[in-house]
Amino acid sequence: MWKKSRTLGGGMIPLLAAAIAGSFWLLLDPGSTLAFLVWLAAVLLTLAWEGRPRLRWALGAVLLLVVLPMAGMANSFLLELTVQIGIYAAMALGLNVVVGLAGLLDLGYAAFFAVGAYTWAIFGSAQAAAFLGGTFPLPGGYFYLFLFIAVITTALVGVLIGLPALRLRGDYLAIVTLAMGEVVRVLANNLDHPINITNGPQGITPIARPPIGWFSDLLGSVGLVLPAYIWYPLFFYLLVLLLIGLITLVNVRLSDSPLGRAWVAIREDEVAARAMGIPLLRTKLMAFATGAAFSGTMGVVFAAKQLFVSPESFTLVQSILILTMVILGGMGSIRGAIVGAALVTVLNLQVLKSLSEYLNVLRQSGAVLDLGFWRYDLSALPTQLEPAKYERLVFGVILVAMMIWRPEGLLPSRRASLELHQGE
Amino acid sequence: MSCLVLADVQAGYGPITVLRGLSLRVEPGEVVTLIGANGAGKSTTLRTASLLLPAKAGRIEFLGETITRCKPHQAVAMGMAHVPEGRRVFPQMTVAENILTGGYLVRRRAVLRTRQDQVLSLFPRLGERLNQQAATLSGGEQQMLAIARALMQDPQLILMDEPSMGLAPVVARQIFSVIAALKGQGKTILLVEQNASLALATADRGYVLQAGSILFEGAAADLAGNQQVREAYLGV
């Protein structure tokens, strides 16, 4: 009944090969983009693989908890990159609840990320003193508390935005959420007067980081003496892994709960859902608030990691990017959201950039391509060719291709894959 | 105390009024059918009774309480189940998930499980297809699923909209034998049906609906024998 061939039921050998090759390569040459991509492919394959749960967990743990941190010692950019992937993955998981499960097209999702980020940015910097007086920033230890406070504030904002917006359906909901997302960004941009709450377009900096003395002590006590510059990247890396684990757990529990089924029911048929006794607005609000809360927590992490937030980070493009991740991975699919986030982020931050750099190297080499009948001076390569300059085109092409050949996403949810491949 | 009372109800869609002062009553344990031509307002009556469509005027009473201004989920919580027209099962969900969603307001797992067993004993065919996706069921199976889903609430009243629609005659008779079984269990049912002869054979009482109000009512046997009804709706 299930189509095993569409998932990765077999495939243990390629998986192990990728894992071993990627790990050794990455450890030997931590600066190599290709090595990182092979490592990442191994992680994603582990996630997608459907056999032998114990082996899968062990493999995932080695790849994520041993190989990457070790490679990260040599090249802390790797930690930076994976934290970025993780933040996006968590947000994709949140948006997956809203769009994938409940079928509510939210084009302003970055707004919740912004609310979370500003929640900590304002109180974790001197900014709060500008309108509250008193002594700010709060000590960095409050960071941990704010991870939870952000859950509450963003869920509230989700309800506030949802109350008017969720009375609409389909395209109208998409348009209103898009507008609401922009409203939040514009508010952040303009709330520097008459009362200075967000410091306007300059943004807020410096933002307190959590004290991690306990973390380096912990590392020391298990015999890991690491240089100080690696503590924070490693701490954020592990924190993000932990949060993704938690968020995934909540997601899994939710999608098999009465509430999760109610979300799917609303997506499938609103009238029938109402006839089953599902309160429409309340259930939709729950989806909005849940998605918002995930995003908000990651906003706090983002603010602390970047030490700086400004309205620039929360544009419509961000919302679209996260939506792309969900669609690429497969709407309603938990593993899909993570895979989609990883692929889009890596493409965005790593692959396109590397290709552009490679093009630059070619240009500066001054080499001349000579085919006898045709000569081309590589230093004349136009800068317009740099892939980083047309990343949106690349994403557009990927999305169109997905819609044609694999509309259910890379790792479809069980429900969607059945629906879209009935004829086969 | 009547199970369901509609008193002088008006309802419609936007500027269009469909129900023009409709009154009817369903007593506990009764199977009542609404017959009438296309566009007479049969489905609208059910949608208004289950509050999916807010009434513009008039009063709706369920189990002695006025619920005219309530929300549909409140009516469901009080024990009203609606099997909507066209079945409307959740296509991407499995049969089991559909059934569980029908019990959305039932919070206790143990109760859910016993209800599920009861419902499946009524529809053994669904029990064989629990993990199958609802969209892949046949029309008759989907109709059974739609009824099964509604029964999960252990309702006081079941509103059924065109259960035989688009089904082969054999399958339609199967569905009606289930309705007869439910009647045997003492369930109260308000049934809308195109196939008036099947409906009148199962029901205790019937209302004939024309242009949004009741033309006349009577015992099902009397209506089946009534010359006017026979000509207009039974095709005899």
Describe this structure in words.
The complex is a heterodimer of chains A (424) and B (236). With 424 residues, chain A is mainly α. Helices cover 68% and strands 1% of the residues of chain A. In chain A, a hairpin with a 4-residue loop joins strand 1 (368-370) and strand 2 (375-377). In chain A, helix 1 packs parallel to helix 3 (53-74) and helix 4 packs across helix 15 (334-365). The radius of gyration of chain A is 23 Å and the shape is globular. Chain A starts with 11 loop residues before the first helix and ends with a helix. Chain B has helices spanning 42-49, 72-78, 95-102, 109-122, 124-127, 139-151, 169-184, 196-202, 220-225, 227-233, and strands at residues 4-13, 16-26, 31-36, 57-62, 65-66, 80-83, 157-161, 188-192, 205-210, 213-219. In chain B, the strands form 2 sheets. Chain B has a 6-stranded mixed sheet with strand order 6-7-8-3-9-10, sandwiched between helices. Chain B has a 4-stranded antiparallel sheet with strand order 2-1-4-5, covered by helices on one side. In chain B, helix 3 (95-102) packs parallel to helix 6 (139-151). The relative contact order of chain B is 0.18. The interface between A and B is medium-sized, with 23 and 32 residues.
Ordered list of secondary-structure elements with their pairings:
The complex is a heterodimer of chains A (424) and B (236).
Chain A: H1 12-28, H2 33-48, H3 53-74, H4 76-101, H5 110-123, H6 129-132, H7 142-165, H8 170-190, H9 213-221, H10 231-255, H11 258-268, H12 270-275, H13 280-306, H14 316-329, H15 334-365, E1 368-370, E2 375-377, H16 391-405, H17 414-420
Antiparallel strand pairs in A: 1-2
Helix pairs in contact in A: 1-2, 1-3, 2-3, 2-15, 3-4, 4-10, 4-13, 4-14, 4-15, 5-7, 5-8, 5-13, 7-13, 10-13, 11-13, 14-15
Chain B: E1 4-13, E2 16-26, E3 31-36, H1 42-49, E4 57-62, E5 65-66, H2 72-78, E6 80-83, H3 95-102, H4 109-122, H5 124-127, H6 139-151, E7 157-161, H7 169-184, E8 188-192, H8 196-202, E9 205-210, E10 213-219, H9 220-225, H10 227-233
Helix pairs in contact in B: 3-6
